[in-house]
Amino acid sequence: MTLKITETILRDGQQSLIATRLKMEDILPVLSDLDQVGYHALEVWGGATFDSCLRYLDEDPWERLRIIRENVKNTKLQMLLRGQNILGYKHYPDDVLEKFVEKAVENGIDIIRIFDALNDIRNMEKAIYYSKKYGAHVQGSIVYTTSPIHTMDKFMENARELVDEGVDSLCIKDMAGLLTPFKAYELVKRLKENFDLPIEMHSHNTAGLGAMTYLKAAEAGIDIIDTSISVLGSGSAQPATESMTAALENSSFDTNIKFDELVKIAKYFRDIRGKYDDFLGSFEVDPRIISNQIPGGMISNLRSQLKTQGIFDRYQEILEEIPRVREDLGYPPLVTPTSQIVGTQAVFNIVADGRYSVVPTEVKEYLRGKYGRPPGKVNEDLRKELIKEEEIINDRPANHLEPIFAKKAEEIKDTAETEEDVLSYILFPDSARKFLEAHYVSK
User: Fold this and answer.
1) Phi-psi category of 47—alpha, beta or left, where left has phi over 0 and alpha has psi -120 to 50?
2) pLDDT, tens only, 211-268
3) Pair 111, 79: CB distance under 8 Å
4) Average pLDDT over residues 270-283
């Protein structure tokens, strides 16, 4: 069979290695070459790209998507959607989720990869429904992690729930690069035996396992793998596209992608990468990730923030604290937003005056069930101490959220020109208002 490739350099590759700072001016010149390779898809949007465009790059994320769509004629465009979190860090009402999905498809997205940080399918069901409603290919994600409660049987249960929801394909989302080769073989084999859907694997090479894991997944029948051009690949990003293509060439898993075309694209990114040296993450293999489980997309940002705050010397202590916080919170997989929740609490536990002496609101809301059902049992003594007698939410968290799109549209009507602008404002109010005022009101 031909093994298909999804290229991630425009989204997760650059998110993992240059903190999502890749500018549109450096994306545009290479789009035509990327479009000619023969990729299954280009991952170009979602994740942290939306926030970064507004907050750091002075760019409209919607316009970025439209420009990419105009210049990519042959290849499907893919995005990463955080279920009910959309692209933010909390749950949003269903009216906002529906409008966002509608506009994402309208502006050029073909494939929507949907995940929930807790593998709580209740937080994905509406995103799946709306994505299908507006004509996108819906890829449901199983967030992979390791803990005493995360077993192969549990992942199969997650897959069954997603298939029952009507997804078009499944993704094994190994955001921290924890999936080992033989575990990958077992998981893919079981999925292929039980479900007649395409299976994609997304991993990172942070712990040095990525390429080996992909090879064993290929032997087990994986249909698609995620890779990133080597200039922003490997390390905490996906395994390098060129390396994986070369490894599979002339095998029964040949990608049918020409190596020389990838070399040309890599040269382009190599020539412009120096512009991003201030944000460049590590390409080193770091097996510590196997225990602290920090995902690739979080590492570069964590290091950058610790350096900015002058506490990078506490980095190792923070890495060691993260698994302890994670256990207290019931072993959530570390992916947005739970990676930020656990990571922030771990930082406070190390730099503040005692563990849990400073507790962000998000941790308390997590313990109340506002993010969904924790995978395992939380530390009940800690929960009682932090949330007192507050009510715990046991049903779908978004059921408790009132529609807000019309209200927010009225609130920003003097600045927003489109429904896309309103969505930007709802997701990131401060950054979006600043951007919109600078670009529209001043005209």
Assistant:
1) left
2) 999 999 999 999 999 999 999 999 989 999 999 999 999 999 999 999 999 999 999 9
3) yes
4) 92
Rounded Cα distance, 159 and 164, in Å = 9
Angstrom distances, CA of residue 267 to CA of 7, 32, 248, 274, 279:
16, 15, 22, 12, 20
- Torsion of the alpha carbons at 402, 407, 411 and 412, rounded to the nearest 10: 100
Distances in Å between the Cα of 199 and the Cα atoms of 90, 193, 219 are 28, 11, 13
How many whole angstroms separate alpha carbon 123 and alpha carbon 131?
A: 14
**H or E stretch covering 111:** strand 111-114
Question: DSSP class of residue 228?
Answer: B
Instruction: Tell me the per-residue pLDDT of 122-155, one tens digit each, with 9 for 90 and over.
Output: 999 999 999 999 999 999 999 999 999 999 999 9
Beta bridge partners of 42: 7, 77
Which residues make beta-bridge pairs with 245? none
Q: How far is CA 189 from CA 40, 132, 153, 178, 220, in A?
A: 22, 27, 13, 18, 5
**What's the pLDDT band for 284 if we cut at 50, 70, 90?**
confident
On whether the pTM is more than 0.90, the answer is yes
Strand 224-227 with 4-7, pairing: parallel
Nearest to 159 by CA among 148, 151, 170: 170
Residue 248 and residue 265: Cα distance in Å, rounded?
Answer: 19
> Among 205-219, 291-305, 336-350, which stretch is predicted with the lowest mean pLDDT?
291-305
